[in-house]
């Protein structure tokens, strides 16, 4: 069964992101999965841990209520298409992994990848740009029309994937003078430094 999220809400999600693309479509379907399994959009204490920084995160922010600003959308730079959703109040959650065989079974995947490279580099012809747009639309349609179990493998999670966000003390960097969260302060040569000043001092980093 295809996506069950209202079309008007999908259009608002696209407007929030700025354009439509396969990555955003994945995020819409992920959010749909989290809403179905956890009612994450109504949860009092939701959290999402994303193992990538792809376009899907904008859909997750818009549709689930998990956001960077609230500290309940956490990015772990693992380079994987894995997303863990958890309801701290209900003490239940799951990790969803986008299935590579769905991606690899897309007949236009290889061509689209090459065309996207050309478009990004500014070397694509008008015909190649048009073909790229057509293939992107086909990839989006394929994602939006698929069953959720065709798109993701899901494993239950019984413990929170991250600790709740905390408000920490700020310490003044002794080089630039800017206030810095204490968990990001580094000590070097007897001084307390922010990360950029520390990196400027310690060239090995």
Automatic annotation (TrEMBL):
Ranges for domain Zinc finger DksA/TraR C4-type: 170-202
The UniProt record lists the keyword Lipid metabolism: no
Taxonomic superkingdom: Bacteria
Alphabetical keyword list: Metal-binding, Zinc, Zinc-finger
The Formylmethanofuran dehydrogenase subunit E domain, residue ranges: 16-153
Signal peptide residues on this chain, from the entry's feature table: none
Metal-binding among keywords: yes
SUPFAM superfamilies from the UniProt entry: FwdE-like
GO function terms (MF aspect): zinc ion binding
UniProt xrefs under Gene3D superfamilies: 3.30.1330.130
PANTHER family per record: DEHYDROGENASE, DEHYDROGENASE-RELATED
UniProt protein name: Formylmethanofuran dehydrogenase subunit E
Organism: Desulfocicer vacuolatum DSM 3385
């Amino acid at each position: 069964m295809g996506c069950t999220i209202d079309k008007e809400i999908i259009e608002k999600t696209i407007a929030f992101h700025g354009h439509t693309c396969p990555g955003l479509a994945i995020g819409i379907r992920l959010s749909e999965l989290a809403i179905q399994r956890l009612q994450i959009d109504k949860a009092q204490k939701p959290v999402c841990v994303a193992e990538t920084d792809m376009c899907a995160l904008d859909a997750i922010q818009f549709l689930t209520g998990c956001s960077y600003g609230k500290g309940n959308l956490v990015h772990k730079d693992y380079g994987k298409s894995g997303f863990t959703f958890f309801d701290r109040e209900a003490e239940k959650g799951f990790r969803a992994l986008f299935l590579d065989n769905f991606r690899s079974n897309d007949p236009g995947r290889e061509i689209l990848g090459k065309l996207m490279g050309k478009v990004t580099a500014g070397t694509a012809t008008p015909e190649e740009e048009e073909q790229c747009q057509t293939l992107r639309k086909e990839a989006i349609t394929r994602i939006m029309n698929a069953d959720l179990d065709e798109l993701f493998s899901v494993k239950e999670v019984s413990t929170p994937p991250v600790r709740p966000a905390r408000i920490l003390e700020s310490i003044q960097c002794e080089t630039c003078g800017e206030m810095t969260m204490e968990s990001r302060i580094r000590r070097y040569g007897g001084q307390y430094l922010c990360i950029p000043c520390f990196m400027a001092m310690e060239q090995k980093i």
